[in-house]
Design brief:
The protein has about 190 residues and is of the alpha+beta class. About 40% of the residues lie in helices and about 20% in strands. The strands form four sheets. It has a four-stranded mixed β-sheet, covered by helices on one side. Strands 3-4 form a two-stranded antiparallel ribbon. A two-stranded antiparallel sheet has the order 5-6.
Length: about 190
Amino acid sequence: MNREFENIIFIDDFMVDPKICSIKFHCDLNKCKGGCCTMKSDFGAPLIREEIFLIEKNIDYIKKYLPKESITEIEKDGFWEEKSKTLMTKSLNKQDCVFVYYENDIAKCSIEKSYQNGESDFYKPLSCHLFPIRLNYFGGPVLKYEEYHQCSSALENGEKTNTTIFNFCKDAIIRAFGKDFYTKLRKYTE
């Protein structure tokens, strides 16, 4: 048997990577500088089709926080694309998400900023909110811990604060899957 699936957790129709309940993780933006939004890659943040509509609806508020280069890209070619049958945000120079702006050398999300300022009614893409959890499909939905070297400071900080990925992502898990799912998953952290 593949060791990766040996201790898999089954909740409702989901398979859940047990690392989500055991690995300590808590972002430390002062150290990582928002690395999850600026990873070198051909792929941006995964999007759900409905999120494209929500971003389009709020784009004028979101653009207020963006640098000129991002605004130009969005106005010229849009903010999303489809690659390998996956919808995703575009990125600039195969790195910064098109929605990144910088505050004191830390990459931040303009979608989230417009929401926090009460201008937009869309928080941010679910894939970003759930990070470092990724939702994949392998004979059904799978929640998996996605490990990135840019997050080494989050692992250290998680140890200091005794925060698991499960705890760190509580609001995102409830947003995505509901309180009942969160409660069922919590028993694996005790």
